[in-house]
Specification:
single chain, 64% helix
Amino acid sequence: MSKEYVNIKIPRELLHEIEKRVNESQGEFKDAQEYIEFVLTEVVKEDEEEETAYTPEEEEEIKKRLRQLGYI
């Protein structure tokens, strides 16, 4: 299944900075588009991980342990 892409606009100066990073990446990224896609994917994953750090059950278990240790 192929990805569907859309166009976005970024300041030209930012693109030049990204292109510098691509050139310094020693072949890790083939172009600015690949770099930008990687960075955005990482940011989104990071946000999702923060939102689901612990389940409600895990939070209760943590609170229980903290109470037993006298912290709360």
